[in-house]
Write a structure and sequence with these properties.
Blueprint lengths: L1 E9 L2 E8 L2 E9 L2 E3 L12 E4 L3 E8 L14 E4 L5 E3 L9 E6 L8 E6 L12 E6 L1 H8 L4
Parallel strand pairs: 3-6, 5-11
Antiparallel strand pairs: 1-2, 3-4, 6-9, 7-8, 7-10, 10-11
Length: 149
């Protein structure tokens, strides 16, 4: 059984959260202003990205610098870390490579929270150091996302 939730539009194409019994996908916009969800809401400690425990999650980081911004030449590379030292890194994203994905299983080894940040010195680096990824039970995640987004 596959559940589809429509949550965003990026440059004319439909972006979705897809959840099945084995995996899900989420998109996060990255710009000099910070990390944003599909509704352009700033993500951070007060508004964490929530992921369901025990489901394989693919987070797609999308380069979203405005074409008229000085930051259009920026390069971002995102790392996701846990308190126990576990870390994964994305490929570099920039104007000619606009997306990079990272896949992991939230909650493995008792991890209940992660932090994502840009590892490259860039315009906006001060805003790209505080994405909190919080692990929640599947029931809580469904209540947060809900049918239809």
């Amino acid at each position: 059984m596959v559940l589809m939730f429509s949550i965003a539009t990026f440059q004319g194409s439909l972006a979705t959260v897809s959840a099945s019994s084995t995996h899900m996908e989420l998109m996060v916009k990255v710009s000099e202003r910070g990390f944003f969800d599909e509704k352009d809401t700033l993500l951070g400690p007060q508004n964490p990205l929530k992921v369901p425990k025990g489901k394989r999650v693919k987070i797609i980081f999308v380069f979203e610098e405005a074409l008229n911004s000085l930051a259009i030449g920026n390069v971002h590379q995102i790392a996701i870390t846990a308190d126990d030292g576990w870390t994964i890194e994305s490929d570099k994203i920039w104007v000619f490579n606009r997306k990079s994905t990272m896949t992991f299983v939230p909650g493995e080894s008792g991890r209940n929270q992660y932090r994502a940040y840009c590892t490259v010195d860039c315009i906006g680096m001060d805003q790209l150091n505080n994405l909190v990824i919080r692990v929640v039970g599947l029931g809580s995640w469904r209540q947060t996302v809900g049918p239809g987004g």
